[in-house]
Design brief:
The protein has 5 helices and 7 strands. It has 199 residues and is α/β, with parallel strands linked by helices.
Length: 199
């Protein structure tokens, strides 16, 4: 049985429900703020492997120890080519090749910069638990870690990461054009100027 409603005192103003507009503003305020602080994005058109490698060299200038870069794209999209340019830009030792069969390679710096840890998670079916043997969480603070095929596997390492998605035409084609979207997540990237990559 419902309790009787409290009598209304005419001297008191009626309590007003929030308007639809203010309710939307309130519910959207936090996500909007998070997006503003957490995501910076740039889209580029790359027309050759040389341009992809040059993009990697430019990107290396924005990276520092503790950065996680996640690369996504179809087979042959140019993920390893981009990473090769990153290695050149970071000035690390050793040729950057696809680490598919060894899962991860560490390229020490030839100078005073951070080492590059290049991971290919394609053959790993599990999440971060399956990658614990790689000690990525230990390596991250002093390294730049680049993970190919890392979706659903390494996000738990850090909320602050750079996601790079490379789109290519699928099927039997020799088209070298790639659409590259780089999105920086977290406070680390909120003030980064990714537009310099299109210069």
């Amino acid at each position: 049985m419902e309790a009787p409603a409290a009598p209304h005192n005419p001297a008191e103003p009626e309590p007003s429900a929030p308007s639809a507009q203010s309710a939307v503003t309130q519910s959207d305020a936090q996500p909007a703020q998070s997006v503003a602080q957490a995501a910076q994005s740039v889209e580029l058109t790359i027309t050759s492997p040389d341009q992809m490698r040059e993009l990697g060299r430019k990107l290396a200038k924005l990276l520092r120890a503790g950065d996680l870069v996640m690369l996504s794209g179809e087979l042959g999209a140019g993920k390893t080519t981009l990473t090769r340019g990153l290695g050149e830009g970071l000035g690390v030792r050793g040729a950057v090749t696809s680490p598919t069969f060894v899962i991860a390679r560490v390229h020490p710096s030839l100078g005073d910069g951070p080492p590059l840890v290049h991971v290919d998670a394609y053959r790993l079916s599990g999440g971060l638990d399956e990658m614990e043997d790689l000690d990525l969480d230990v390596s991250l603070p002093e390294s730049v870690i680049v993970v190919e095929w890392g979706e659903g596997k390494v996000e738990e390492l850090t909320d602050e990461r750079l996601q790079v998605v490379i789109h290519r035409a699928v099927g039997d084609t020799t088209d070298e054009v790639r659409q590259v979207t780089l999105t920086g997540l977290g406070e680390r990237w909120s003030g980064a100027d990714l537009s310099v990559l299109s210069a």
